[in-house]
Amino acid sequence: MAKICVIGSSSMDLVVTSSRRPGAGETVLGESFKTVPGGKGANQAVAAARLGAEVYMIGRVGEDTFGTDILNNFEANGVNTQNVKPVTHLESGTAHIILAEGDNSIVVVEAANREVTPAYVDEAVDVIRNADIVLIQQEIPEETVVHVSALCAKFGTPLLLNPAPARMISQEVIDNASYITPNEHEAEILFQGVSPAESLRQYPNKLFITEGSKGVRYFDGEQEVLVPTYQVKAVDTTGAGDTFNAAFAVALAEGKPLQDSIRFANRAASLSVTKFGAQGGMPTRAEVEESL
Ligand SMILES: Nc1ncnc2c1ncn2[C@@H]1O[C@H](COP(=O)(O)OP(=O)(O)OP(=O)(O)O)[C@@H](O)[C@H]1O
Ligand SMILES: [K+]
C-alpha cells in the first residue's frame, strides 16, 4: 500500500448556496447552509485514503467542537491522526464558501493551521522520511513549506507541491519539489511575466497546470502535452483540485507511469465534480477503477 504523508490545513467549511454572489456592501438571500469538513490538506488526505493509500496527516486543529468533528472525520475516512494535535490558544481553521453563479468564492481563516510550523513538523520527521511521497499545499506558513521541501530533498522523499492558494515560492522550493501542480490562475502568479508555455518548457515532467474541464498540461521534454479530463455533468467543482492532487500522489506513489497517473487523477477529479461538497464527491478506488 502506498504511504502518503499530507502536510497541510484542516478546517470546517461553512458553505452557503445562493443564486447570486453579493458585491461589496450588498446583502443577498441565500438558499441553503451546511457545515462540512474541509481545508486543502484535510481534503487531500481524505481523498488519498479513499483511493486506497495509507495516509498520515500532519496538521493542527483547535480545542473546539470543529476540532473534534475534524478529527472524527479523519478517522471515519481511515486517515492516521497521530500528528494532528490540538492547539490550545487558537480556534480550528474555517473556510467560508459561497457557491453561486456556477463557481465558488472562499474566505479562509487559518487559525490553528498557523501552528503547522517547521518545529511542529520536526516532531513527525520520521513520517516524512518513511513516506513514498509527501503532499503539501499553501494554507500553512510559507517557512513550513520551505522546511519540508528541504527535508524531502535530504531524505530523497518525492514532494508534490500543490501551490494553492497562490503565492510566490522560492527557487529553492521549486528545485526541491518533484511535482508542482498549479491551476491556471496560480501558474500566472507563480511565473509572473512568463507565458504558461515557457514555464512548462522550463520544468519538464515537473510542472503540471490543471485547466479545469480541459484537463492537465505539461511539457514532456519534447513537446507540450494536454491530457484531457473526462466529460461529466459538473454539479459542484469544489474539491476538484484537491481530488486531482491526492489521486496524482497515490498513482505516483504506486509507481504508475506519468501519463497513467495523470489519467487516474483526471478520472478521480472528474468524478468529484459530479457531487456536492469538497469531500462529498471524492471517489473510492473502486469507483475510479470501474469508470476508467
Ligand atoms: N468540469 C470538469 N469536468 C471534468 N473534470 C474536471 C472539471 N473541473 C475540474 N476537473 C478536474 O479537476 C482538475 C483540477 O481542476 P481545476 O484546474 O479547476 O483546479 P482548481 O482550480 O484547483 O479546482 P477547485 O479550486 O475548483 O478545486 C482538472 O485538471 C480536471 O482533471
Ligand atoms: K465536488
TrEMBL record:
<dbReference type="InterPro" id="IPR029056">
    <property type="entry name" value="Ribokinase-like"/>
</dbReference>
<feature type="binding site">
    <location>
        <position position="236"/>
    </location>
    <ligand>
        <name>K(+)</name>
    </ligand>
</feature>
<keyword id="KW-0460">Magnesium</keyword>
<feature type="active site" description="Proton acceptor">
    <location>
        <position position="242"/>
    </location>
</feature>
<keyword id="KW-0630">Potassium</keyword>
<dbReference type="InterPro" id="IPR002139">
    <property type="entry name" value="Ribo/fructo_kinase"/>
</dbReference>
<dbReference type="InterPro" id="IPR011611">
    <property type="entry name" value="PfkB_dom"/>
</dbReference>
<dbReference type="InterPro" id="IPR011877">
    <property type="entry name" value="Ribokinase"/>
</dbReference>
<feature type="binding site">
    <location>
        <begin position="11"/>
        <end position="13"/>
    </location>
    <ligand>
        <name>substrate</name>
    </ligand>
</feature>
<comment type="function">
    <text>Catalyzes the phosphorylation of ribose at O-5 in a reaction requiring ATP and magnesium. The resulting D-ribose-5-phosphate can then be used either for sythesis of nucleotides, histidine, and tryptophan, or as a component of the pentose phosphate pathway.</text>
</comment>
<protein>
    <recommendedName>
        <fullName>Ribokinase</fullName>
        <ecNumber>2.7.1.15</ecNumber>
    </recommendedName>
</protein>
<dbReference type="Pfam" id="PF00294">
    <property type="entry name" value="PfkB"/>
</dbReference>
<keyword id="KW-0479">Metal-binding</keyword>
<feature type="domain" description="Carbohydrate kinase PfkB">
    <location>
        <begin position="1"/>
        <end position="284"/>
    </location>
</feature>
<keyword id="KW-0547">Nucleotide-binding</keyword>
<feature type="binding site">
    <location>
        <position position="266"/>
    </location>
    <ligand>
        <name>ATP</name>
    </ligand>
</feature>
<keyword id="KW-0067">ATP-binding</keyword>
<dbReference type="InterPro" id="IPR002173">
    <property type="entry name" value="Carboh/pur_kinase_PfkB_CS"/>
</dbReference>
<comment type="similarity">
    <text>Belongs to the carbohydrate kinase pfkB family.</text>
</comment>
<comment type="similarity">
    <text>Belongs to the carbohydrate kinase PfkB family. Ribokinase subfamily.</text>
</comment>
<feature type="binding site">
    <location>
        <position position="183"/>
    </location>
    <ligand>
        <name>ATP</name>
    </ligand>
</feature>
<feature type="binding site">
    <location>
        <position position="139"/>
    </location>
    <ligand>
        <name>substrate</name>
    </ligand>
</feature>
<feature type="binding site">
    <location>
        <position position="242"/>
    </location>
    <ligand>
        <name>substrate</name>
    </ligand>
</feature>
<feature type="binding site">
    <location>
        <position position="275"/>
    </location>
    <ligand>
        <name>K(+)</name>
    </ligand>
</feature>
<feature type="binding site">
    <location>
        <position position="272"/>
    </location>
    <ligand>
        <name>K(+)</name>
    </ligand>
</feature>
<dbReference type="GO" id="GO:0004747">
    <property type="term" value="F:ribokinase activity"/>
</dbReference>
<keyword id="KW-0418">Kinase</keyword>
<feature type="binding site">
    <location>
        <position position="277"/>
    </location>
    <ligand>
        <name>K(+)</name>
    </ligand>
</feature>
<feature type="binding site">
    <location>
        <begin position="39"/>
        <end position="43"/>
    </location>
    <ligand>
        <name>substrate</name>
    </ligand>
</feature>
<comment type="subunit">
    <text>Homodimer.</text>
</comment>
<keyword id="KW-0963">Cytoplasm</keyword>
<feature type="binding site">
    <location>
        <begin position="210"/>
        <end position="215"/>
    </location>
    <ligand>
        <name>ATP</name>
    </ligand>
</feature>
<feature type="binding site">
    <location>
        <position position="238"/>
    </location>
    <ligand>
        <name>K(+)</name>
    </ligand>
</feature>
<feature type="binding site">
    <location>
        <begin position="241"/>
        <end position="242"/>
    </location>
    <ligand>
        <name>ATP</name>
    </ligand>
</feature>
<keyword id="KW-0119">Carbohydrate metabolism</keyword>
<comment type="pathway">
    <text>Carbohydrate metabolism; D-ribose degradation; D-ribose 5-phosphate from beta-D-ribopyranose: step 2/2.</text>
</comment>
<keyword id="KW-0808">Transferase</keyword>
